[in-house]
């Protein structure tokens, strides 16, 4: 079984590496986004008001570069995969195989993640380093903590995406729900503006939501804004969220399978 | 021998939300949806013995695909029971689908971006087929379905006929004992159809694979199936050997006679004239009462016959009769 997943991942990786044009446009758009964000921060800091002392400009630049880079690696196509497969009725062909569907979709996303690491994230980091210098982590220890935290982040993001995908089984017109979720994640995860800049009340509410644990947690660790103890405890929170979302997904999936409705005669 | 597929009183209920027209209607149906229940499959029972090739036919929306989806465990029935090889597909879908090969003519299970052979490799891993039987199967399938020309072509570049052959091979790699084919020849040219029909006959003969075929192409049915099950409006309306169904539904045959010159008295006590166009006359007769040769002999005594042909009723006629008579149950 594991062989099958590995094969899916490998094939997805190989196929994706042949798509050159898409890679070019992706790198270009993300680079523009990165430049715009960093320049915006630079201007904001030039104003010199003391209200943004929480982070130095250098830290914030690193934060922004890393944030955009990991967003290209965190591939969560599962919601779109399920949605389009249901619309086209293609999902039936996945159902009559003796292998769990969601695991296959995860294997595909991981394959795409590997390919993105090579052909999207790497060029982005290279360009960013040319413009703003290499975005070093605050220490080697922080870098080591950053990696597992990223894995947990990805797990949270993927589970959220899979949950949205499940909704497609129930509501045929999923429409923009995926986009709404993506927008919420983008803002509340701190991927564009760290939540430390948000009002106290928003930060308090956000502590009880899964979103900030997807981007802000690993990035905070990377730039050294969190000490080791805090890093470990927020990783524990991440793990709890992974557990909660996993349970919701399994329960929802079991119910969905019972009520499956496939479009088309 | 025990049945491989046993279906009892199968019912599948759908809930349809009726939408009213106009803006007001849309708002109304959004707030208070009018739900009506509708039985897509309404009390179907049948059993299929190992090695049969069964045609499962019916007009669009008769409940064919719904039944197939329940047999494969994709849909759950509202009521009734299903046993495939003694297992309920709803209770243990994964165990059942291991024994099944499924081909939906309008869909593909092949991976769009991969080469055909890579899709097969993936299936080998999914079904955990051991290397030797995989190699054997693939060699046989390649030969019969002539896959060698395009096994290294990406699936998206295959022609429909090639893709279909690829899909059938993919469904057979894990040596299933039952093969479901949902319109396997849809949109194919005569050559590809021929190849696929031959293949079905072949695997049925050599491996005694049970085949269930849904199709609108009645040539498929005529050439392959020994038995047909006809459904309409979610119910079985006919089930039996193909010949007896044709015979039962269309007991008439047609004799078309072309005369050398016009005649006055064309009637005969053995047959009925149903159409006349110039020198051509269509006689309809019951094959129970008189044979074609007897009728021809009787006619040629009184008429100057130029040319003659007998038309057999075919499956298509029979099926049309069934659909018509059961249309508003």
Automatic annotation (TrEMBL), chain A:
Pfam families: ABC2_membrane_6
Keyword flag Nucleotide-binding: no
Parts of the chain that traverse the membrane: 21-40, 60-78, 117-137, 143-171, 183-199, 235-254
This protein's UniProt keywords: Membrane, Transmembrane, Transmembrane helix
InterPro entries tied to this protein: ABC-2_transporter-like
Protein name: ABC transporter permease
From TrEMBL, chain B:
InterPro entries cross-referenced by the UniProt entry: AAA+_ATPase (IPR003593), ABC_transporter-like_ATP-bd (IPR003439), ABC_transporter_ATP-binding (IPR050763), P-loop_NTPase (IPR027417)
Alphabetical list of Pfam families matching this protein: ABC_tran
Keywords (A to Z) from UniProt: ATP-binding, Nucleotide-binding, Transport
Domain of life: Bacteria
Keyword Iron set for record: no
Single GO term (MF): ATP binding
Classification via Gene3D superfamilies: P-loop containing nucleotide triphosphate hydrolases
Domain annotation ABC transporter: ranges: 5-258
Name of the featured protein: ABC transporter ATP-binding protein
């Amino acid at each position: 079984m594991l062989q099958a997943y590995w094969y899916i991942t490998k094939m997805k990786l190989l196929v994706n590496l042949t798509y050159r044009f898409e890679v070019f446009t992706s790198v270009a758009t993300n680079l523009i986004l990165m430049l715009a964000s960093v320049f915006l921060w630079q201007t904001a800091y030039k104003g010199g008001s003391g209200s943004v002392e929480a982070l130095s400009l250098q830290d914030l630049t690193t934060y922004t570069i890393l944030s955009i880079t990991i967003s290209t690696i965190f591939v969560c196509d599962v919601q779109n995969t399920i949605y389009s497969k249901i619309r086209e009725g293609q999902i039936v062909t996945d159902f009559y195989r003796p292998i769990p569907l969601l695991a296959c979709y995860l294997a595909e996303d991981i394959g795409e993640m590997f390919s993105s690491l090579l052909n999207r994230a790497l060029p982005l980091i290279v360009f960013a380093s040319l413009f703003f210098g290499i975005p070093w982590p605050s220490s080697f220890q922080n870098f080591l903590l950053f990696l597992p935290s990223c894995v947990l982040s990805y797990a949270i993001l993927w589970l959220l995406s899979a949950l949205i995908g499940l909704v497609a089984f129930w509501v045929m017109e999923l429409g923009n729900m995926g986009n709404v979720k993506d927008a919420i994640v983008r803002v509340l995860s701190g991927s564009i503006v760290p939540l430390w800049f948000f009002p106290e009340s928003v930060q308090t509410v956000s502590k009880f939501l899964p979103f900030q644990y997807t981007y802000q947690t690993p990035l905070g660790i990377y730039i050294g804004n969190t000490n080791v103890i805090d890093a470990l405890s927020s990783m524990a929170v991440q793990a709890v969220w992974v557990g909660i979302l996993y349970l919701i997904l399994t329960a929802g999936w079991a119910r969905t399978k019972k009520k499956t409705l496939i479009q088309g005669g | 021998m025990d049945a491989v597929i046993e279906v009892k009183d199968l019912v599948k209920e759908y809930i349809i939300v009726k939408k009213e027209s106009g803006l007001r209607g849309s708002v109304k149906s959004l707030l208070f949806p009018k739900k009506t229940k509708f039985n897509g499959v309404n009390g179907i029972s049948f059993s299929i013995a190992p090695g049969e090739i069964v045609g499962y036919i019916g007009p669009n929306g008769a409940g064919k695909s719904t039944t197939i989806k329940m047999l494969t465990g994709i849909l759950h029935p509202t009521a009734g029971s299903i046993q495939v090889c003694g297992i309920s597909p709803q209770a243990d879908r994964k165990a059942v689908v291991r024994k099944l090969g499924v081909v939906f003519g309008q869909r593909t299970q092949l991976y769009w971006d991969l080469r055909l052979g890579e899709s097969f490799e993936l299936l080998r891993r999914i079904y955990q087929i051991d290397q030797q039987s995989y190699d054997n199967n693939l060699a046989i399938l390649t030969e019969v379905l002539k896959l060698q020309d395009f096994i290294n072509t990406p699936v998206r570049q295959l022609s429909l006929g090639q893709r279909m052959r690829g899909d059938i091979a993919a469904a057979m790699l894990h040596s299933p004992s039952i093969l479901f084919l949902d319109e396997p020849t849809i949109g194919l040219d005569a050559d590809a159809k021929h190849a696929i029909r031959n293949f079905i006959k072949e695997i049925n003969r050599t491996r005694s694979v049970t085949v269930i075929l849904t199709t609108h192409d009645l040539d498929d049915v005529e050439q392959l199936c020994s038995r047909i099950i006809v459904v309409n409006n979610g119910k079985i309306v006919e089930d039996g050997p193909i010949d007896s169904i044709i015979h039962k539904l269309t007991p008439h045959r047609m004799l078309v006679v072309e005369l050398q010159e016009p005649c006055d008295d064309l009637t005969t006590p053995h047959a009925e004239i149903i159409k006349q166009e110039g020198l051509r006359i269509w006689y309809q007769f019951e094959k129970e009462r008189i044979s074609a040769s007897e009728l021809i002999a009787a006619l040629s005594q009184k008429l100057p016959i130029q040319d003659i042909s007998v038309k057999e009723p075919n499956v298509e006629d029979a099926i049309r009769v069934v659909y018509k008579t059961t249309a508003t149950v």
